[in-house]
Specification:
The chain is of the alpha/beta class. It has helices spanning about 15-25, 35-45, 60-70, 85-95, 105-125, 155-165, 175-185, 195-205, and strands at about 5-10, 30-35, 50, 75-80, 100, 125-130, 130-135, 135-140, 145-150, 150, 175, 210-215, 220. The protein has a five-stranded parallel beta sheet, with helices on both faces. A hairpin with a 3-residue loop joins strand 12 (about 210-215) and strand 13. Helix 2 (about 35-45) runs parallel beside helix 3 (about 60-70) and helix 6 packs across helix 8. It is elongated. The model is unreliable at about 125-130 and about 185-190 (pLDDT under 50).
Length: about 220
């Protein structure tokens, strides 16, 4: 379990908002209740993670998310009654770290908040001026280069995007569909061999068996 976190609870329904605030307080966190999207855009600075409803009174939650992502990379877990695929895809592509449909089980929701916050920590630490350091692998997300044991490795565009997607979610299980959708823009083609071919090439170039773990029937996890 992560230590104490400041959690923005962006929810206009008082019954839901009060229940979430009480539950998060009971497990040792510091929730801050916000009822409008504008409240979040003004008060996100001190937050460790955001729990965001999409049905807000002043603007749609997807618009709030879009505006927030121009200002901050604070982790966002969407909690909403919208269960249609279009809303899920728009939220995830718009920068949400996770998407949970109401009614949510509090234990699961708490775990998802912690995973989102942990992912942000993993993507930013440890780092040097040269890039993200993972054992003897250094990944420069800005310069789009990678080194292993001090030697540059030549990656194709898709191979680097695959590497970047995994290392910024270090320790997290990432599904094949998530990878295909993020890198190729179409989760449907996950049934093809495209991902397998690129994954095989990436693993070969890294030369570090066990770094990318296969989760049978699901996807992959970066394990360093």
């Amino acid at each position: 379990m992560l230590a104490w976190m400041r959690i923005a609870v962006v929810e206009d329904d008082d019954g839901v908002g009060d229940a979430l605030t009480d539950a998060l307080t009971l497990v040792g966190h510091a929730p801050v209740r916000m009822r409008r999207g504008a409240d979040l855009l003004l008060g996100y600075h001190d937050m460790d993670v955001v729990l965001l409803d999409l049905g807000l009174p002043d603007m749609d939650g997807l618009e709030v998310l879009r505006k927030l992502r121009t200002l901050s990379s604070v982790p966002v877990v969407v909690l909403t009654a919208r269960d249609d695929e279009r809303s899920v895809v728009r939220a995830l592509r718009g920068g949400a770290d996770d998407y949970v449909v109401k009614p949510a089980r509090l234990g699961e929701l708490h775990a998802r908040l912690e995973v989102a916050a942990r992912r942000r920590i993993a993507s930013s630490e440890p780092a040097t001026d040269d890039g993200l350091v993972l054992g003897d692998i250094v990944v420069d997300l800005v310069g789009r280069t990678a080194e292993v044991d001090g030697h540059d490795i030549a990656l194709t565009t898709k191979e680097f995007e695959l590497l970047a997607h995994l290392v910024t979610r270090r320790g997290e299980a990432v599904s094949r569909e998530q990878l295909m959708d993020a890198i190729w823009g179409d989760a449907y083609v996950a049934i093809s061999r495209t991902l397998d071919v690129h994954m095989t090439a990436l693993r070969s170039k890294l030369g570090r068996p066990g770094t990318i773990v296969t989760i049978r029937g699901f996807g992959y996890r970066w394990d360093t």
